[in-house]
Amino acid sequence: MRAGQGSRTQNKGFLQWFADQKVGKKIMYTFIVTSVIPLLLSQVLMLYVISNNMKEKVDDLMVNQLVQISERTGLTVDVYTNLVYQIYSDDEIIEYMADCQNASSEIRARAYREICGKLQQYGLTAGGIECISIILEDGQDITYDFGMASAVDNLWEGYADKKSIVPYKLAQKESANLAVSPTQRVQRGGEEERIFHISKQMYDFSDIQKGTVGTVVMSINESVLNAVCSGAQDGGELYTINFIMDKDGNILTYPGSFYSGIALSEGRTVKEFVEKTGVLDGKKIAVNQYENEDLGWYFYNAYDEDYILRDVRHIQYLTIAIGILLLMVSVFLIRYTVLLIENSTRSIVAGIMEVQKGNLDVQVHVESRDEMGQIAGNFNTMTGKVQDLIEEVQEVTVKQKEAEIRALEAQINPHFLYNTLDSINWMAIEKEEYEISRMVRNLGVILRYSVDKSNKMATVAEMADWLEKYVSLQRMRFNDAFTCEIHVQPGTEKLYIHKLLLQPFVENAILHGFKEIEYGGILRVDVMLSESRDELDIIIEDNGKGIPRRIAETFNDPERACRDDKSSIGLHNAFSRMRMYYGDSASWNVSSIPEVGTVITLKIPVSEKGGAGDADCDC
Hints:
By secondary structure, this protein is an alpha+beta fold. The chain has 17 helices and 16 strands. The C terminus is likely disordered.
């Protein structure tokens, strides 16, 4: 609990500190917090998002490039595997292989020459083939080396048992399929070369039961793979490289071929290997990978991230520079504006301090025509008017006191009037003038109802009872020239309505509607609930002389209806009271036809409780 109170105290302290700062500092702090910091953060975030999006797009392009390299590599390897299949299924070679195991040396020599000739023909159909060997089951080999153009000096001359070479061993493991051996470093003719191999076991399809009759091994220069990978690179500055690796981490081909034929050290990542080779020395390296499941090889792309994204970096630097420039301009403008405001405020505050001391002759001088200039001008005007008003107030005060004294002298106590009317009433009863007595009694009730807290509220029942007494006096006055019907819907009797709200409308109907009418006048007042039961609808209807159309239209305009235009029909005050009591919740409509009659409909909110001080009517 104490921690929460401490936090609220700190917040209040900060807000109070901010509130106590000068206007200029408030504007500057607000500008920094609401503009500078969000601008910088949004700019950093925008640059970060753009950079990441661009890197993702570059990575996608690099992976697509690796997919294309993988497809071209697969097509290239297919050329050599097709040749191996042709050798594998060549019936003549199979027959000559059988002759190579004949006891006659002449037959073996002829078979050897024929097979070498066939291998030489196959090898010339595709470039990059270094050597083709057929290793028989007894360990003999028939080899033609294209690099040395010899059937004697060849790639495998250093091996006494040709069954010990890696391609042969792999072919035995992959008896049903081709075996692709990783790139190896081999010595041939005193030079080191990088070569990979494709090998497959051979069968005599005329006598398949004999089993394997030999193994064909085709040796291909690594430059074939290197050419496919380097073909996707530009000939200019080296900013990206492509290379191939098998699942065991053997480097099948690498730019420059120096690192081809080696295995990736255990625990070393591909990125670390690329950095170690120094091909992209000093560059920020990013690596992408794609796996060719058919070959079982991984294709890699390593590129200089800074070089590839150099245009994005330039945009970032340019954006930052423009942002800093705009920020400096904004700070200068806001500071200049703050200085102008501070100077104007200082002059106005100094003027106010002088007025506070009682000096109303002070004048504030602000040369600008902005809001501060307007405030200064209004301040100067205000001080002049205040001086004039002080003098007027002094005169009015004296006159008001004199008027109050006269009013007190002329004031009549309402109870004196009530008592006097009561005495007249008893005198009328004693003389058996009961009609006069009833009129005096009704007049007393009306007077008491009207004078006692006339701005408060009464129930609808009290209002209707008072209205009946008021109309009875008016009928006597007009010699019963009209009749009056007051209908109150059951359930509305206990609702509250402002006292004397309807009196002006009823009086207007009698005085103006029935003017010069000697008989036949009908006045009807209906009080009912609206269909939604949230409004009280009051209809005052008469068959009198009516209201001119121009005046009726004026009453139906709320603004004009509440503005007293000194006309002879005194309804403006009644509508003003409705608007004062109920605001916009009250509405009305005046409909009148000259010489036919007038209908006034009033709508006010339902009120089930009266205000404080509501009078208890003695009606």
